[in-house]
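Side project, low priority. Logging it here so it doesn't get lost.
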Amino acid sequence: MSFPTSEAPPATKILVVEDDPNIVDLIRSNLAVRGFETLVSTDGNRVLQTLETEQPDLILLDLMLPSVDGFELCKQVRERSSVGVIVVSARGGDHDKVAALNLGADDYLTKPFSIDELLARIAATLRRTRLAPVEMQSTLIALTEHLEMDLANRQVTRDGTELHLTPTEFALLRELVVNRGKLLTHAQLLRRVWGPGYETEIEYVRVYVRRLRAKLEPEDGPPLILTQPRVGYRLAPE
């Protein structure tokens, strides 16, 4: 899998949650020369406090930490923040990847990894948190009678109450909305939302469609996101 790389804006802050000092040094040195500010937690105990006080732009999270459960920590981070989360773990099984995505991780990278791939995934995740504006007549879109999406302010509301969507969830929904009624294949969605090099990660889009459905669709109402089996998804026509 190949990825394009790009350097970070000067103020980008990344929290590295990792107990292996060699990996910490590798990541920190490579981030520093590209203009990132790096924070480190070696045991995970103070991550939630650091999240609140330092407000990082992205978290690199190891699952196998000495003091806390990485999956539980991922869940707690996502309950408190929309910060980008990339799991970086030696646990390479599909079950672990799906579990992390279900808990709100934006991406999953298996150790050992190349620094170029890590940097590319960081760049891709940061792009989703800094979506370029969409040129449309109106940036306020009615999804259903009760749901409204504000593209300019990156908000989705139900009857005026804001729903909590992560950057990846919002980016995926936005792609479906601006192509409303049009079938988008798994590869198209992965390329447009996650970036080049992710086209084969079909589980990513499946997990995130499930997350959107759980947040947006009423249990007894018509579906908002329609599935074309083994092909892709489209947003229900107005």
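Brief comment: The mean pLDDT is 90.
Revisit when time allows.
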